[in-house]
Each structure stands twice: as C-alpha cells, then as structure tokens.
Task: structure prediction
Amino acid sequence: MRLETPTQAVAPRRVGAGSWVVAVLVLAVIGVASLLIGSVELPVAGVLGALVDKLPLFSVDHDLTDTELRILYDIRFPRVVMGALVGAVLAVAGAGYQGVFRNPLADPYLLGVAAGAGLGATLVIGLGAATALIAPVAFVGGLAAVAVTYALSRTVGGRTTTSLILAGVAVAAFATAFQTFLLQRNYDTLRQVYAWILGRLGTVGWGDVLTLLPYAVVASGVLLVLRRFLDVLALGDEESAALGVNVPRVRRLVVLAATLATAAAVSVSGLIGFVGIIVPHTVRLLTGWSYRVIIPLSLVYGAAFLMLADLIARTVVAPAELPIGVVTAFLGAPFFLLVLRTMKGSS
Amino acid sequence: MRRIALLFALLLVVAACSPTDSIDTTTSSAETSTTAVETTTTAVETTTTAEAAAFPVTVTDARGEVTVVTMPESIVSLTSTGTEMLFAVGAGDQVVAVDEFSTYPEEAPTSDLSGFTPNVEAILSYDPDLVIISFDPGDLQASLDAVDVPSLLLPTAASLDDSYSQLNTIGTATGHADQASDVVAQMQGDLDDIVVGTDVPEGISFYHEVDATLYSTSSSSFLGQIYGLLGLENIADGADDPGGFGFPQLASEYVVSEDPDLIFLGDIDFGVTPESVGARPGWDGMTAVQNEAIVGLDSYLASNWGPRVVELLAVIADAVVEHSPAS
Result:
C-alpha cells in the first residue's frame, strides 16, 4: 500500500545513501572494536585471524590458545551479538511506541513491561527457584503486565492513548510496590535482584542469543513494514482514519510487536534503560521526523549504542564489570538533556 | 492464616502492656529469681553472683561505648552471627528472641523479627535488656536509646581479629567474659591446627562465587582472609579496587583466562550447581570443571563470621587436599 500524500505532509528531510553508509560503518567499527577489546587482552592479529578463519572458504593461521579461542567464540562473541540485538530491539521498540502514542517520552517500558518482568524475576529469585526460570518468568511477567494495562485502559477510558499510558503507570507502580515488598521479605537475595534490574550481558551465551533472535526478527520486521503508517498516525487519529488507515489495528500491531520484543530482550538482559529514548531521538535529530527513516536507523544505531555501552561497562574497571544499565543511564541522561535543549532551540 | 496469627500476637502484646499486668509480671519474675538462687547448688550460686557482680560493664561497639547496667536476662539478637556468638559464649539461656535468619544453633528462639527491616515495637514486645544487631537501618539504635534499652552494633567483621573482639564484647556484655576468651583461644587453636595440618601445594588458585552474576570476594574481605589462611591465590584479587568492599564483579572471560584450580560456590542455595557452572558458555574447558574441582559451600558458613569459621576452613582445606594436582 502506498501512502504518498500523508508522508509528504510530514515533509521528511531527504535522506541520502550517505546516512546509511555512515550508520553501517559506525556499527561495523564498534562491533569489531568490541570483539578486539575486553577484560582479557587477546592479541589483535590473532583475533582477526581467528575470526577470518571461522568464515567459510578461508583458512588463516592464528596463534590463539584454546583458552583464548573459548574466550573469543563462547564468551565475547555472543555477548557482543547480544548487546547488538538487545540495543536494536529496545531502540526500535522505543521508536514504535513514540510513534504510536505521539509522545516523545514514550519508551519501551511505558506500558509496564519492565515492572512486570522485574516482578517475575524477583519472584523466581526470591523463591529460590532455578536461575534458568528467571528469563521465561520475566518474559511472562512483562507480557502479563502489558495485558493488564490494556484491559484496564479499556474499562476506564475507551480507546484514547492517554488512558492506556495512565493505566501503564498504575500497573507499573503496583508491580513495583509488590516487588519491593518481596525484596523486603527476602533481603538475602537483594543483590541478585539488583544485579538483574541493572542489566547484565556478562554471562550470556549463544543459547541466549538464539532465544532472543526470533522475537527480534519478527518484531523488527513488523515495525519496518508498519513504519509508513506511523507517519500517518502522526497527523492524528481522525485524520489517519480519514486517509483510510485502520488506526486501532495499526496501534495494536505496533504495541504488540514492540512489547513482545521488549519483553524478550528484558528477560535475557535485565532492565537496560535509556536506549529506547535516546537512540530514536538522536536519529530524529540527524534525519528529520519520518518514521520511514527513524525505524530502520534506530535498529542500526541502537545496536551500535548498546555494543559501545557494553564495551565501556566491561573495560572501564576491568577485570571487574560495571552494570550496563549504569553506563547507558550515565551516558544517556546527559545526552538526553542535550537532545532536548537542541530540539527546543531549533523549534 | 498468618495475618490472623499476627492479630492474636498483637492482642497479646496489648494485654501485656496494660499497667496492672506489667506490675504483676515484675513482681512474679523477682520471686522466681529469688527461688532460683535458693534452690541452685552452691557452686552455681557463686558463679552467678560473680558474673552478676561484674555489672555494670562498659563495652565498645561500632558506634561507641555502651554501658550494660545489670546482667542481661532477656537478649534479642537480630544477627545470625550475633546469635551464634551468644550461644558459643554460654549466654544462650539469656536469649529470648532471635531474627528469622538466625538458623544456628537449632535451640535459638527464632522469631519473625527482621534484622533487615526491624520494627522497634516488635522488638520491645520481648521486653529486652540487650539488643544485638549487625547493621542499623532506620536509626534502630537511637530508638532503643530513647527507651533505655542498651544495644550492641556488631557489623560484618573485617578480619579474624574483629571477630575475636566481637566475641569478647558479647562475652563481657552478657556476663561470660571468661568463656568468651576460652572460645577465642579454641578458635585460634583450631584454625592453626587446620592450617598446619593441611599440605597446600604452591600456587593453588581459586574462584569464590558469591552469585551467578559472577560477584566474587577478594582477600580484603573477611571471607577472603579465611581462604588466605591456607595461602591460596584468589583470582578476584586482580579485580579488587583499592578501598573497595572486597566484593568485585568479575568478567566471565577473566575467570576463564585465570583458569583457577578450584571453584567454590557460595550460591548453591540459588539454583547454581557444579553442573550448571560447567555448562556456562566457554567454561567447559576450565581446569576446575575438567577436574570436577567445584565445591558447593553451605551458605550459612559462607556468610557468617562467628566461631563456625573453623568449619568453613575445614571444608576449604578438605577441598584443597582432595583436588590438589599433585595427588
């Protein structure tokens, strides 16, 4: 379906091939740097050789020991890929939420995903159940919280986005209160829950990557397909409907895709804040207001940003680690203020 | 159910607090103590008198000087190590309530009091004449001062000497100073025996896991010092920041590259097993995993600093002997 008229109404700045080249270059540079640098020093030539050696048709001599190879392939590589996936998903979900709710402050955790997932994780940790259960229960908790938010908003205020957002706030507050209660009862597990809340990529393997991958692909695909409709929605519900867009249906699809992806990301990586807000806004500043561009570029820059944040998290105090949520907030909060100031100045 | 029980408890407390009742209680307890002294044998009588005669005593806790006017007869302990020490120095009979995490010894009167979110009124309902805590959230000590209940703040020991001095403090404050010195001497002797009796090959390294996100403990913590008694190399020392708390979080790749000879798990109560450790990405080739040199530690032993550190050191020493590369 082509929607020339409305997208022109939003008047996107023309985005040339240059933007894409730059984005992919940034992603590639940060990705390779992330593989080369870590808390354990691996010889650069050896790592590059080993990586090329892994490619089909290539056979390169490298002098990495078995231990070094395990560190590279089994620990560092999946971690870097996971960082990219989680960052991409959170950024694109944030962009989707901002478009669908026409609210620049909307983030992937808006409808209570984070609080629900956090409650799920706290339940598992507090009850002393197997750590393998944390991810699935957090996933279910996140989805359940959003379902409750959705149901509540329908009983309260019909179909306006305001009632949905307010219901999300209420659900999040409730889940957080319950989580705090559980923590108070089980203070011996406090640090474990705390570590989860601050986000962790430290112990992920290829298994976790494979768990997240399908959700990330499907959700990003849905958002990419629907990105033109987000531009239409920016005009307002009635105008969009007049242009033949089934507004409630588009909104439901976007929210569903973004929520599924966020819940999956959060369940394997913990709560990583700010990515979903600062990445889409930065892309917006660089390229203008069309979601046709914001959605795909958010995917790329989200991946790059989180890989960079993780690189900092695992090297700044090496061989100890910083929680990645601390790094994203530390970089993200001042950066976000800067973005806000610039936006204000330009308008 | 729990709520109903709580309501009943509340009613009881309210009843106990009514003025006439409290006068009655005082009289009757005075009577009991007289009877007790009369009926006990002469030997016990002398010691009791001698112990009681030492009061008032002044001891020092983490906050400052604390004066205990008479020998405490109803002690409340909100710290598991404090409870362990009270019973070790022979003050167990004087303890009326301990917090929910004081699981040792079994005869300790466990209650639902919390050391984490202490409720002053709940504590006072036991009418304590001494309260022992290991940390002071929400100015608990100030509240207890206001009602003239002496309290001892005995935080996590920074060293074995700290642990010994806490034992002596508890001994003096409860009228068991001599027994406390005996316990300390016994501990020192037992620890020495284990150290002397264990043949530790040069350069044995270990990784102690606090939780599954790879928090560890370095030699600057109390726990790390216990490992240090045997001369083991702690891989977490490479990650300890100066002035840190001694509990750094390690990178997975760092643990793999350090390749410790032994892995001790302080988190087996939270679903971590030697098998799950071996199954972590990249960990399967590690020496400790290959040699099955992964030892789960009792979580009580790994988190307290009372006389039972002797048991902890024994477990560690056994593991070293069993998994030494030489054997």
The two ends of chain B are 56 Å apart (CA to CA).
